[in-house]
Amino acid sequence: MTSSLPVKPASASRQSTSSSINSPQHRSWWARSWPLALLVALGATGVTVTWLKPETHSLDYAVCSANHTIYTVDSDLPNVQCIVVHDTLIADTGDREDITLRWRERWWSEIPLTGIIHLPWPLNFLEPSLRVITIRPDSIVVPGLTDAHAHMLHYGFKMNLNLEDCTSVNEVLSHLKAYVISHPDILSDPTRWIEGMGWDQNKWPRAQYPHADDFDREPLLRGRRISLARIDVHASWVSNRVLQLMAPLPENVDGGLIIRDEHGKPTGIFVDNAMDLIPSQPFSEAHAMEYFTRATTDALAVGLTNVHDASSVPEEIQFYKKLSETQKLPLRLYLMGNVNSDDYWGNQIPRLIQHGFGGRLTVRSVKLFTDGALGSFGAALLEPYSDNPSTSGIMRVQPEALAKLVRELSIDGWQVNIHCIGDRANHVVLDIYEDMLANASFSIDALRPRIEHAQILTLDDIKRTGKLGGKKSSISYFVFALSMVSNSTVIPSVQPTHATSDMWYAEDRLGPKRIQGAYAYRTLLDASPNRILPLGSDFPVEGINPLLGFYAAVSRLSVKGDSPHGPGGWYPSERLTRAEALKGMTLDTAYASFSEDILGSLSIGKKADFVVLDRDIMTVPMDEILGAKVTATVIDGEVEYGNL
Question: Is the pLDDT of residue 475 over 50?
Answer without folding.
Answer: no
